[in-house]
Amino acid sequence: MENLITNYEKYFVHDLQSRRFQPETFNQIVQNIFKNNEHIFEIKEIGKSFEGRKINLIKIGEGKTKILLWSQMHGDESTATMAIADIFNFFAKFFKENEVQKLLSKISLFFIPILNPDGAAKHQRLSAQLIDLNRDALKLVTPEARILKQVQTELKPEIGFNLHDQELSTVGYTNQITRIALLAPALDENQSDNEVRIQAKKIAASLVNILNNFIPGKISRYDESYEPRAFGDKMQSWGTSTILIESGHEINDPEKSIIRKLNAVSLLSIFHDIANQNYKNVDISVYEKLPYNTYRAYDLIIRNVKIRYKNGTEIDADLGISYQVNTHTTDIPVLMEIGDLSTFVALKDVEGNGREISEEDIHIEKEFNLKKYFLEV
Ligand SMILES: [Zn+2]
Q1: 351 three-class SS
Q2: Do the Cβ atoms of 97 and 52 come closer than 8 Å?
Q3: Distance from Cα 179 to the centre of ligand 1, integer Å
Q4: pLDDT of 338-369, one tens digit each?
Q5: Distance CA 354, CA 130 (A)
Q6: Residue 126 CA, ligand 1 centroid: distance in Å
Q7: Which is nearest to 186 in space by CA: 151, 132, 235?
Q8: For the chain, which terminus, N or C, has the lower number of CB atoms within 10 Å?
Q9: Which residues, in sequence order, are CB contacts of 139 under 8 Å at separation 6+?
Q10: 263 CA to middle of ligand 1, Å?
Q11: How far does residue 374's CA lie from ligand 1's centre (Å)?
C-alpha cells in the first residue's frame, strides 16, 4: 500500500493546477475519473446550495468503518478539494490492487467535496448568504450546513475529517512556517476527553507520525478553544471522532501543490491505519505535544529599508506585507507592519538594501506601492 501511496505522480490530477477553480470545473474533472468506474464510485446528489449548485456525496468502499470527509466549507480553501480529486484518481487507478481491495473491504469512505460551492465560485470564505458555515452547526440556517448535519445523522460515521486552509503561521516559536495544522476539536470549554475525542486524538497522533516522514518540525496544533457553533466540535459531541486538518503554506508554492500532495498522501495513509486499526496503540502525546500555531509570519518581508520622514529624520525598518485577495485574480500587497521584524519569517524574504521610502507611502493595513520601490519583487 505504501508504495502505491508514495507514487503520487501516478494519481496526481494534472487538470487541476490552480487553486482558484470553479466548482463546475472540479465536477467535470472528477466526472472524467468516475466515468466507466461505477463499480468504484457511488455518487449521490444530497442537496443544493443557496444559489442552486449541486452538492454531492461520493462513496467508495463497502467496509464497516464509515469515514466522512468534507472540504471547502470555506469557499476559498480549496487545497484539500484538489487532494480529494487525487484520492479519487488513486482509487480509479489502483482499485484492482489486492491491498486496495482489502482496504475497501474494511472501510467505507464518504466525501463531500466543496460543501460551499457558492463561496468557491466567488473565491470567498463565506457562503452566498455571507454566513460562515463553520459557525452554523447549532442553528443550521444555511442549506449547506443542514446538508452536512443530515449526512452525519443518516450515516453516523465513526470518523470525520474537516478539511480547511489556515492563515499563514509559524510552528510555536520556531522559525518554521506551518505546513499542516491538526486539531481534535474540543467537546466543551474544559477540554474534557471522552472515547470519541480520544479516538480523534489517536488519529491525529497517527497523522503526525505519517507527516513526520515528510515535514518533521513543520506541523502545528490548531487553536483548541471550544467553539460550539463549529462543526468539528459539534460532530465530536454527535459521536463522530473528528479531526480538523488545516492546510498551511510552503515556500515558493503559491498553488499549494506541495501541501495538496501532503493532504493526499497522509489521508490515504491514515485510511490504511484506520482499516488496520494501527492507530489504536499510538501515543496520544505525539499530538498533544505539537506546538500551537503562532502568528509571526508574513507573505513578504522586505528587510532593511530606510523610512524618510517629512521632518528630515529617518529610521531603519523592515516591512511586513500580506497579500490580500480582492478579486478573482489579483492579490493586493497590504502593508501590515513596519519596524523590527527580526523575529518574523516570510514566504518570501527580500533584502531592501537601505532603499529609502517616503513617509507618505507608509499606510498600515492599506495597499503598499511595491512597484514604486521594488519593481523586481
Ligand atoms: Zn476554514
Answers
A1: strand
A2: no
A3: 15
A4: 999 999 999 999 999 999 999 999 999 999 99
A5: 44
A6: 10
A7: 235
A8: C
A9: 229
A10: 15
A11: 33
Q: How far is the CA of 76 from the centre of ligand 1 (A)?
A: 8
Q: Give the Å distance between the CA of 166 and the centre of ligand 1.
A: 6
Q: What's the first-to-final CA gap in the chain, in angstroms?
A: 43
Q: Which residues contact 254 (CB under 8 A, 6 or more apart)?
A: none
Are 202 and 284 in contact, with CB atoms under 8 Å apart? yes
Q: Separation of 357 CA from ligand 1 center, angstroms?
A: 36
Sign of CA dihedral 176, 177, 182, 186: positive
DSSP assigned state of 292: B
Beta-ladder partners of 163: 71, 245
CA of residue 56 to ligand 1 center, whole Å:
19
Domain boundaries, the chain: 2-294, 297-373
Give me ligand 1 centre to Cα 174, in Å: 24
Alpha carbon of 19 to ligand 1 centroid (Å): 15
Cell of 274: 484506520
What mean pLDDT value characterizes the chain?
Answer: 95
Q: Residue 121: enclosing H or E segment and its boundaries?
A: helix 117-122
The cell numbers describing 294, all together, are 503562532
Distance in angstroms (rounded) separating the CA atoms of residues 223 and 235: 17
Measured CA to CA, the distance from residue 16 to residue 11 in angstroms comes to 12
Fold assignment, 297-373: Urease, subunit C; domain 1 (2.30.40)
| pLDDT surpasses 80 at 376 | no
ipTM over 0.90: yes
CA of 164 to the centre of ligand 1 (A): 4
Class of domain 2-294: alpha beta
